[in-house]
Specification:
- By secondary structure, this protein is α/β, with parallel strands linked by helices.
- The protein is built from 15 helices and 12 strands.
- The chain folds into 3 domains: 171 residues, Rossmann fold (3-Layer(aba) Sandwich), CATH 3.40.50; 64 residues, DNA polymerase, domain 1 (Orthogonal Bundle), CATH 1.10.150.300; 65 residues, Ubiquitin-like (UB roll) (Roll), CATH 3.10.20.30.
- Strands 2-4-1-5-6-7 form a 6-stranded mixed beta sheet, with helices on both faces. It has a 3-stranded mixed beta sheet with strand order 3-9-8, with helices on both faces.
- Strand 6, helix 8 and strand 7 form a beta-alpha-beta unit.
- The longest helix is centred in the middle third of the chain and has 33 residues.
- The protein starts with a strand and ends with a strand.
- Bound molecules: guanosine-5'-diphosphate and magnesium ion (MG).
- The site of guanosine-5'-diphosphate (GDP) has 17 residues, from helix 1 and helix 9.
Amino acid sequence: MQIGIVGLPFSGKSTLFQTITKTHLDPSALTKVETHHAIVKIPDARLDKCVEIFAPKNTVHATIEFVDVVGLKKGESGSTQFTTNFLSNVKSNDALVQVVRLFTNETVPHPDGSINALRDIESFETEFILSDLSLVETRIERIKKQLMKMQDELAKRELPVLEKCKQILDGEKPLREMDFSKDEIHLLKTYQLLSIKPMLIALNFDESQRGETEKYVKLVSEKKEGKNTKIVSFFGKIEMEVSELPDDEAKVFMEEYGIKESALNTLIREAYTLLGLHSFFTVGEDECRAWTIKNGMTAQEAAGVIHSDFFAKFIRAEVVHYDHFITAGGSFAKTRESGLWRLEGKEYIVKDGDIISIRHS
Ligand SMILES: Nc1nc2c(ncn2[C@@H]2O[C@H](COP(=O)(O)OP(=O)(O)O)[C@@H](O)[C@H]2O)c(=O)[nH]1
Ligand SMILES: [Mg+2]
């Protein structure tokens, strides 16, 4: 999974990127128009606990790739057209985090001269909608011409979906707010539309604004939160400093500043929810591992995520929920005795926190 961090220049994208990926970008790299990638292990206290119990040779966290999407030129305002380079860098992401600046900092002026979160969010939205609209219109025209010449089944199926998109975009709405069927989503995949991507709007506050964040979050949420759009907040500068501290010191610091959850944990939790993802575990003395799957996946599909062969060769899944495993003192034998350990068939819907072992032929 790949999450792109986007936003206007000087909104705090690179600050956020460095905070969550615990990387240091060279100051000279920050000013260059360059895209940075980093893979982040998803923190999971349940996996940590399993590791404590099994002391495995190997521990594998689920991961997310974060991308600091640069490509808007310095000083370029949100009201001007985005560069094609920027748009193409956005396309490859599964979800986007849009960093919106609320901090004031005289030394780095906002490109539009003032702080206005709704204006910034809307200018981004408009650009994404216009870019999608132009793509959709071009495609519709091409398909219509093609259908005049010859019948093409795929084109015939695509046309109504594209027209549905056009209607939404003409109404100045992002595509992510609409309902699409599985088939429609599948047909639209190849277009790599922008406004269809789930979006986390991350309001970046200065620590001096600690008392005011809720007011702004509420204001922006009322106007902008919706299906596949979620508003979160963070304190860019201070959280970057905290991320450089050892864990115990970071904890004290965060408490002092009233930061309930690190930016990384907030982003991951919300991104999982937006993307409809959750985790299951495989555990043992060799390896403890967290796996990411879509909500609603069956035991057989989950087996296929572990190993493609396991899908076809699936017989049964041994399942116990993490909570039950812990209640039973971290002992499989005890979960068996108390009937919490189960054998499930291929149609079983895997739940967040299930510990699974696949029986295969
Ligand atoms: N005062 C203050 N400055 C910040 C905050 N977040 C970022 N900055 C500063 O704003 C400038 C731009 O941040 P950067 O992350 O490079 O923005 P980008 O252009 O969006 O990648 C840097 O000088 C940061 O130190 C914040 O929360 N408070
Ligand atoms: Mg940057």
